Amino acid sequence: MNTENQESMAPQSEDQNHENLEQQILATESEQAKPEVKNLEITGDINAHLTEAGKWGSFLAILGFVFVGLMVMVGFVVSIVFAFLPSAALGGSPDFPFPTFLFGLIYVVMGALYFLPLLYLFRFSSRVKQALKYQSQEKLSSAFQNLKAHYRFIGILMIVVLALYVLMFIVMIFAGLFAGMAGFLGMPA
């Protein structure tokens, strides 16, 4: 019993003190990072702005769904037409590096990629209108959750597209350099 008291009263090591201090700092930072809002008032101006944002969001989402549907249909039609057309009829060589029906598949993939952010935008629009109509905090929270998901998806998609642009630019520079060097050395390109 005496040894337990002595161990508990023994000074902590420097590492333990450092870990305890880090835990206290992290706990304080996490409390400061998420301030709690008790009562957020939606004034008449805010209500009008959110109502208008909901209406425009619905319009854009529905219009986007129509264009995604058209894009997918065109993709299927192009895939079917190109599958039955010989590649020589398109001005290409019969030894085309990949099947021509994949051109239509690109439209289908682009339509599928654009569907999800449109769904998030539509959910935001419908839920913000419901939240204002029924004065529901949960619906408003869900609406802004969908708006966040919409912008996050679009942001990640833009990062991927920009990275692909940079990669294509680098590939084109090297392809041009190698083709130029082959021409300079008298080798066929």
TrEMBL record:
Residues 1-14 have a biased composition (Polar residues). Keywords: Membrane, Transmembrane, Transmembrane helix. It comes from the Bacteria. InterPro entries: DUF5362 (IPR035287). It holds the Pfam family DUF5362. The chain crosses the membrane at residues 59-84, 96-122, 153-186. Residues 1-22 are annotated as: Disordered. This is DUF5362 domain-containing protein.
